[in-house]
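User: Sequence recovery, please. Input:
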């Protein structure tokens, strides 16, 4: 009898599942990180306070991550955990309602990214002396969501180069940082838009798969569309890595890996259905 192959004492399938759920857990930790970063940035972005109607705008990245995490788990349930014969009735409707709420939050978060990008575009050359307002409510932009109080110590980096100022944020930026902020904000918009398109195609795949109408031809066409979209995400991920934005790169990489697992679940599901039909 051939001994069952094991890696680190685990069956390959068990090891794969452990790796998959580790990725999901790391995404949750990233959610906590983004929530903290956006909370700290609210003082500069919303000096008069964050009203209820501005919560999603103020916490667009956190809202986006939370909704995506819930949607990811819903996809995991649909494509792997719940058997086909039980994926109907109240269970199916419950998942649809959860997914629907997530789609609304994701769309709202995308609007938040767009709004933030529009605010970032308002940085323009500043003719005055930035150090003259050091110690006031003015801030220094050092990252897309990180604004430090402008002090006599850090305003020195604005003295020798052209300085940019954003009246809406009451924030200064160096000549190097201003275009980087713009590009980062735009990349967030492109990234969020692309992900939204991916889940629309994925939802179509799952909907047709449950109805037994996901033909091999249609599955390949949808796969080709998603391949282009995933390449766009990889481009965004590579851009963050090139800038040295570790968290942007790390979070994007985790999400690409997470949805690779969902795509693999769908592939196995579709292949097993085709095998049953062929038999």
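Assistant: Recovered sequence (279 residues):
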């Amino acid at each position: 009898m051939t001994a069952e192959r094991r890696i680190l004492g685990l069956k390959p399938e068990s090891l794969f599942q452990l790796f998959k759920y580790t990725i999901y857990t790391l995404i949750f930790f990233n959610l906590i990180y983004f929530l903290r970063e956006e909370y700290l940035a609210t003082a500069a972005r919303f000096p008069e306070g964050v009203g209820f109607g501005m919560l999603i705008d103020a916490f667009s990245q956190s809202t986006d991550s939370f909704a995506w995490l819930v949607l990811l788990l819903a996809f995991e349930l649909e494509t792997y955990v719940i058997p086909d014969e039980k994926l109907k009735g109240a269970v199916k409707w419950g998942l649809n309602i959860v997914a629907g709420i997530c789609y609304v939050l994701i769309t709202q978060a995308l609007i938040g990214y767009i709004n933030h990008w529009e605010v970032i575009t308002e940085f323009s050359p500043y003719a005055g002396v930035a150090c003259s307002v050091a110690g006031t409510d003015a801030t220094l932009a050092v990252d897309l969501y990180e604004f430090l109080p402008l002090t006599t110590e850090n305003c020195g980096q604005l003295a020798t180069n052209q300085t940019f100022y954003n009246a809406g944020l009451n924030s200064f930026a160096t000549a190097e940082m201003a275009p980087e902020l713009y590009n980062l904000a735009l990349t967030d918009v492109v990234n969020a838009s692309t992900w939204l398109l991916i889940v629309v195609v994925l939802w179509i795949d799952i909907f047709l798969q449950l109805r037994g109408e996901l033909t091999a031809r249609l599955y390949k066409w949808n796969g080709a569309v998603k391949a282009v979209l995933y390449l766009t995400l990889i481009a965004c991920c590579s851009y963050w890595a090139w800038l040295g934005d570790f968290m942007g790169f790390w979070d994007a990489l985790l999400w690409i890996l997470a949805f690779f697992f969902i795509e693999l679940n769908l592939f196995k599901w579709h292949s097993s259905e085709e095998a049953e039909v062929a038999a």
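The chain has a mean pLDDT of 85.
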